[in-house]
Amino acid sequence: MTSAVWAAVLLLFPWGDRRPDAPDMHGYRLDEAPCPVLPLKAIGTAIAPREPTGEGESTGKVESGILNDPALDQVRCFIPLRSSAGQERSLKRWSIGYSVGVMVELHKKTDPADEFEAKRGVTDFGADPGVKVESVADLGDKAYLLTLDNGIAELRVLEGGAVLSLTLSSSLQYEDDLGGAPMGDGPDLPDLSPYQSAMISDMRDLMDGLKR
């Protein structure tokens, strides 16, 4: 009798290995790191294109291997942008470098929505009451942009069980062919707010590329 009841339940609810309360994955899959193939068309136009490594190739360093687990798929990677020679001349020996970081987490068994909300204002440096947090409309289920004073802006998106992050970072670089010490403290890091729309556009490309 019990076996007959369970057979009927499985026919009505064919979950297989997927839990009935598991979040909707919206077609997201993580078969490979996205950085090597992410074009960054909008950021490339607004700031600088990706740093090339050779003919027909682009960088996309994976910080660690891809985690593929029944509960969670995860990867972190980053993409350096090409330096601007004209910018180096205008700042003499100082230049400003940019890079883009990407994080993808696919939560296949538990809904990450509460955790996503709890991490508003939390960065890689910990909880920061001074971080600026702005909601972004019409992007996934929820999205917000964090802006820090140290030249970092991060766009985070939640869609079902997927949590995605695109981080734009700027940094000061000093070069001296003679090995001399830096002259002064260098220029201020740039305001990254003009690049918010470019970050959103490239996030949409990232999301589309991860869906099958």
Structural summary, described in words:
With 212 residues, the chain is of the alpha+beta class. It has one domain (20-209). The protein is built from five helices and twelve strands. The strands form three sheets. Strands 3, 4, 5, 6, 9, 10, 11 and 12 form an eight-stranded antiparallel β-sheet that branches. The protein has a two-stranded antiparallel ribbon with strand order 1-2. Strands 7-8 form a two-stranded antiparallel sheet. β1 and β2 form a beta hairpin. The chain is globular, with a radius of gyration of 21 Å.
Apparent shape: globular
Number of strands: 12
List low-confidence stretches: 5-16, 85-91
Beta content: 25-35%
Average residue pLDDT:
82
| Gyration radius, in Å | 21 Å
How far the N terminus sits from the C terminus, by CA atoms, comes to: 41 Å
Question: Helical amount among residues, as a percent range?
Answer: 10-25%
Provide the structure class. Answer: alpha+beta
- Secondary structure tally, helices: 5
Largest sheet: 8 strands, antiparallel
Count of domain modules: 1
Strand and helix order: HHEEEEEHEHEEEEEEH
Question: Topology of this protein?
Answer:
Elements: H1 2-12, H2 41-46, E1 52-54, E2 57-58, E3 61-62, E4 67-68, E5 72-80, H3 85-90, E6 94-107, H4 113-118, E7 122-123, E8 126-127, E9 132-135, E10 142-148, E11 152-159, E12 162-174, H5 196-209
Antiparallel strand pairs: 1-2, 3-5, 4-5, 5-6, 6-12, 7-8, 9-10, 10-11, 11-12
Features of the shown structure:
single chain, 212 residues, alpha+beta, eight-stranded antiparallel beta sheet, 12 strands, 20% helix, globular
